[in-house]
Amino acid sequence: MAFHLRPDAPELPDFSMLKRLARDQLIYLLEQLPGKKDLFIEADLMSPLDRIASVSILKQHEVDKLYKVEINKPVLSSSEQLCFLVRPRIKNMRYIAHLVNTDKLAGRTRKYKVIFSPQKFYACEMVLEEEGIYGDVSCDEWAFSLLPLDVDLLSMELPEFFRDYFLEGDQRWINTVAQALHLLSTLYGSFPNCYGIGRCAKMSYELWRTLEEEEEGETKSRRPEIGHIFFLDRDMDFVTALCSQVVYEGLVDDTFRIKCGSVDFGPEVTSSDKSLKVLLNAEDKVFSEIRNEHFSNVFGFLSQKARNLQAQYDRRRGMDIKQMKNFVSQELKGLKQEHRLLSLHIGACESIMKKKTKQDFQELIKTEHGLLEGFSLRESTSYIEEHIDRQVSPIESLRLMCLLSITENGLIPKDYRSLKTQYLQSYGPEHLLTFSNLRRAGLLTEQAPGDTLTAMESKVSKLVTDKAAGKITDAFSSLAKRSNFRAISKKLNLDYKAELTLAQRQPFAL
Amino acid sequence: MDCYTANWNPLGDSAFYRKYELYSMDWDLKEELRDCLVAAAPYGGPIALLRHPWRKEKAASVRPVLEIYSAAGVSLASLLWKSGPVVSLGWSAEEELLCVQEDGAVLVFGLHGDFRRHFSMGNEVLQNRVLDARIFHTEFGSGVAILTGAHRFTLSANVGDLKLRRLPEVPGLQSAPSCWTALCQDRAAHILLAVGPDLYLVDQAACSAVTPPGLTPGVSSFLQMAVSFTYRHLALFTDTGHIWMGTASLKEKLCEFNCNIRAPPKQMVWCSRPRSKERAVVVAWEKRLMVVGDAPESIQFVLDEDSYLVPELDGVRIFSRSTHEFLHEVPVASEEIFKIASMAPGALLLEGQKEYEKESQKADEYLREIQELGQLTQAVQQCIEAAGHEHRPDMQKSLLRAASFGKCFLDRFPPDSFVRMCQDLRVLNAVRDYHIGIPLTYSQYKQLTIQVLLDRLVLRRLYPLAIQICEYLRLPEVQGVSRILAHWACYKVQQKDVSDEDVARAINQKLGDTPGVSYSDIAARAYGCGRTELAIKLLEYEPRSGEQVPLLLKMKRSKLALSKAIESGDTDLVFTVLLHLKNELNRGDFFMTLRNQPMALSLYRQFCKHQELETLKDLYNQDDNHQELGSFHVRASYAAEERIEGRVAALQTAADAFYKAKNEFAAKATEDQMRLLRLQRRLEDELGGQFLDLSLHDTVTTLILGGHNKRAEQLARDFRIPDKRLWWLKLTALAALEDWEELEKFSKSKKSPIGYLPFVDICMKQHNKYEAKKYASRVGPEQKVKALLLVGDVAQAADVAIEHRNEAELSLVLSHCTGATDGATADKIQRARAQALKK
């Protein structure tokens, strides 16, 4: 994201169109319930909503008060019209049903409207029906499926996708993905080149094609603004997500959590007593220069920047009155702005440093490196053990265990048991369920006999060196089933050509 | 040409009426028309005859025959009437035959005599029998009005959406009215009836007496009444032999005519057209036909045969045993052109063109004459329009030729009216053909629209002609060809004598992937005919799986529906099928079905997890999925149970399940958890404080922090806490307590399994440099440098590092050398490095 564009690169598509589209639709939906109303928003949707429509826009459309949907909390709203903006989840339906039924018992009649984002599911309507309030509420969809986070980054903001699909095997969101792709192709032209890997990618692609074909006649052939599209299943590459972050943006996310492209910097960063919400995107000139830098370079860069800034300020010393006027009217504002951002990012850096040094960041990175490269396995394992014993952080410990499992193609039975036992002792027995889930998702598994590294490696190398074109696809499907990280990365490193072939001969390359 | 206007009859000063033959009838009627119940549909529609009506007191044993003919008299259907006595026949707007029986039941037949459905006009009608019935057309569809034996009216304005309305009683009505009719005004249906000298208008709310304005006095009874095609005009035939004509609202009188015949006419219908110059009524007696308008003289025809009149939008069709004729007012354009000695531009152009063909110079004269008047455009338009109103193709041609000739002398005459007329006439001539038998006039065709005409062709199963018309007119596929193909396919599936495979193949061959054809609709039709297997075969061709599912469900092929729904990728659809299956199958079968469909299973599980926990358990049980069952009970131990005993019991169940799943690890872990829970409970009882739901590690830490070292030791032994963990744990806890004495004792209890660096580290974190230094000395050589750096002794660290000759350690120390104080040390290291390099 946000790579510095080459001068001859084509212009980026105007993604702000998506934002306007979503906003207009939301306003339309709100206007369908004329008059004053209270809006209940699910916590998950708050940040995305914030990016689409500000509170003042909501107020303009007669939203009186805003509430967060909080299960098991009494509802204080006294408005005659209630509007719920929720994800299609059964627990939300029960919440609404409870509310409506309470009103009914109290002999109160209000108007209720449920807006599902990004779409409604039959199961939800059925729950409403089972709870006997289907006729009392009106349901609508806010087909808001793509949020532009930056000039070159869109997000579907579907946090439950991973769990639903990769753990529970629930495919309902794939339709949403296909719809989003359809929206993209309607707005920016059909994608001439599609590549992908993974089962879910394939399903999304196929569903999207069906949607396109149904409307084939209507779409005019226009110049595509998006040239290539790649579909990647997360389970094709867990490793990237499991490694420690080392670039600035990643560490900011690690430390402060970036939500929908914006971050809350606490008092320790802003060096005042208030926390500050900052939008992190290409418009932040300081951030856009350091976001992809390795963290060790960031400090140097920032101090250089500070010196430059000082120099710019200093220029005014020798100015005459006219130049000074120019300076104040034109440059000063930009400099002030830059100054403010600079101090924020330096503050953030300090916080990150403080947090990371506390945790032996060096040791951690060293261990991860060892795992990725496949050396000093024993040391890494005992490091993880120590990590668990010391109760450093439950999530970090799990992350390391998963990384170990994936890079080693599953833990050897002895380690699998002992690490789990240690973990349960440290962080509580309830994590037995966590392990069962991780195993199902293929994140933390036990090595099956015969699936040792070397066996897998030889299998993969045989497949990859087999140059017969048709067999590559077979290779991929067998890889997809049980991908062996080490073997693949080795092959891809060794043989640049092989990488190209693999990339081109996807299960459904066009 | 001289005789072209021979069949024109003037009515009054301005209008001419002409009658020409449409067809000579193909039928071979054995009976007289008067012996039959007759119904003919407007817009050149079919004719239905029911022979041997009951009123002719024949032997009851002879079953009457219902026959349906095209307008050309070609037989479409003939069937024995097996139901009750019929009072009236009529065609609906969709060309369905409605047969009103004496008992109030209405039977609906298709054009080909296929029985469609039946409905009843209500109990009241059933009790009092039907005396008379009328089928009429409204803007909503077709209505039925019934006069019962109790002299009450019941009507429905639309048989497609049957709503019966019983009209209020007419005061003093003791016997059947002498005549009555249904009227449609202001979107509502009324009944106008005549009783003796009085007229009544009955609507839904009330019955009111009305009088036609300007009616000649002395009327004691109305013998016949007629409403025009558009319900705008009304004609009344009185027993004094007068015909009163006026608006249907009875507010205005058009004219009155005394025909001096007192015998009741057999039929009386309006004969007018939109923008008619002279509205007229056609009255028929046995041997006489009279056209009456606002003129002192009427036109009279002699009827050789028993005839029947069918009112049309722009005229009247008259058919008898041998012929089928059309009587109408001559349209303006035709009149202008063909009137004797007409000097209208169109007439001149037609003459000119004829001369031109004869290669006579007179052609030029005619043209010049039109051009001098500047009326050439008008002349062309007249010829085009007149061509539309001609029935005979040769006349159409000569008019069009004249138009085309005139066009040559015009600069900018838009060609589309000419082209469209040519196209329309080609279509009209095709459907007027004897074999097709739809004698539409141009105005009727325009009123009906091409879509409806295509529908009617489809109804007559004239698919090839319909498709040819679509192709000829270049209609968009979705509206045209594919729609007709779909209809054809729907008809095809009803051919019971052809095997399923053949039908399916034939349909697929013809239809292919034509856009806009819905295979599921065809399949639905096939299922409607009871051909489930064929329906399934057809559904295979449906590209959208989503469309297949509802029908499959209807056909009770739920399992197939399930796999199709899964194929479609639409989870909502899958869910719909699942709920269907759940109600349809017993629980065991339902679960078995799910088991074979993992995608559906996980979807259902997701639902159960939130909504039906017990079902979820059953699902796991069914699959012998003990692993998940175990997890389920573990979850339950947190969610459902409050009391410790309950939780332990749930965990015990879970442990048993884990054993069954051969997951010893999970079973042991669960058992450990049970032990821990019980123990924590005991600790809470004995020591107070919060222990429940702490992890083992935290429990021990809490004990140490609370000073219960003995207990802590005991617990560590009981649960076999590994040494390393215990050391980390104690170290952290004691440091947190800042119990440095105990920490030292502990460190000396035996050799530390985790080394002594952590001791240094933790002391420094508690800012106790003094204690830290104590341990720093005990740190093993490989970590010594780190330990020394931690306590801030850079100089000594440097010494050790130099001693070790370890490059990494040297640079680590160097990086800690800050400011002036460590300057000397830094130099020392640099020197040592240089030395090492030299060597």
Automatic annotation (TrEMBL), chain A:
Source organism phylogeny: Eukaryota, Metazoa, Chordata, Craniata, Vertebrata
Protein name listed in UniProt: Vacuolar protein sorting-associated protein 33B isoform X2
TrEMBL record, chain B:
Pfam families: Vps16_C (PF04840), Vps16_N (PF04841)
Vps16 N-terminal domain segment(s): 4-420
InterPro entries from the UniProt entry: VPS16, Vps16_C, Vps16_C_sf, Vps16_N
Domain Vps16 C-terminal as annotated: residue spans: 517-835
Coiled-coil ranges per UniProt: 349-376
Cellular localisation: Late endosome membrane; Lysosome membrane
Domain of life from the UniProt record: Eukaryota
Major location (coarse): membrane
Keyword Coiled coil: yes
Mode of membrane association: Peripheral membrane protein
Keyword terms of this UniProt record: Coiled coil, Endosome, Lysosome, Membrane, Protein transport, Transport
Function (record text): Plays a role in vesicle-mediated protein trafficking to lysosomal compartments including the endocytic membrane transport and autophagic pathways. Believed to act as a core component of the putative HOPS and CORVET endosomal tethering complexes.
PANTHER family named among the record's database cross-references: VACUOLAR PROTEIN SORTING VPS16 (PTHR12811), VACUOLAR PROTEIN SORTING-ASSOCIATED PROTEIN 16 HOMOLOG (PTHR12811:SF0)
Family recorded in the similarity comment: Belongs to the VPS16 family.
Name of protein: Vacuolar protein sorting-associated protein 16 homolog
Biological source species: Echinops telfairi (Lesser hedgehog tenrec)
Lineage per the UniProt record: Eukaryota, Metazoa, Chordata, Craniata, Vertebrata
